[in-house]
């Protein structure tokens, strides 16, 4: 769980299998039906939000946060770690 100053007031993380197409909040790729993805729902600064992340970006986020020992804001993964990781994982 994230312990950042900008972390959620509360959140729930699940790893469902897509029943319809979704878009990854990090790389913008399509998450097709049948693919597993990470869904995080919660409240940040009083606003409810849901973030859907493909498996590749979820793994990159986990690795990057472990290395830098900081949380990375949703929708800012590749801006934070640099574009080299984005293309290396695909």
Explain the overall architecture.
It is a single chain. The chain is of the alpha+beta class. It has one domain. Helix content is 29%, strand content 28%. It is built from three helices and five strands; from the N terminus they run E-E-E-E-E-H-H-H. Strands 1-4-5 form a three-stranded antiparallel beta sheet. Strand 2 (22-23) and strand 3 (30-31) form a beta hairpin. It is globular.
Count of individual domains = 1
Number of helix segments? 3
The separation of the N and C termini measures: 26 Å
Taking the sheet with the most strands, its summary is:
3 strands, antiparallel
Helix and strand element order: EEEEEHHH
Strand content: 25-35%
Furnish the topology, listing elements before pairings.
Elements: E1 10-14, E2 22-23, E3 30-31, E4 37-44, E5 47-54, H1 55-68, H2 77-81, H3 83-89
Antiparallel strand pairs: 1-4, 2-3, 4-5
In a few lines, what is going on in this structure?
By secondary structure, this protein is an alpha+beta fold. It has one domain (10-89).
């Amino acid at each position: 769980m994230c312990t950042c100053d900008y972390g959620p007031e509360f959140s729930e993380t699940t790893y469902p299998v897509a029943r319809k197409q979704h878009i990854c909040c990090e790389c913008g790729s399509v998450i097709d039906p049948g693919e597993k993805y990470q869904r995080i729902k919660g409240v940040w600064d009083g606003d409810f939000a849901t973030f859907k992340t493909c498996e590749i970006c979820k793994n990159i986020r986990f690795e990057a946060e472990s290395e830098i020992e900081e949380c990375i804001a949703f929708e800012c993964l590749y801006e934070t770690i640099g574009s080299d990781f984005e293309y290396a994982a695909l």
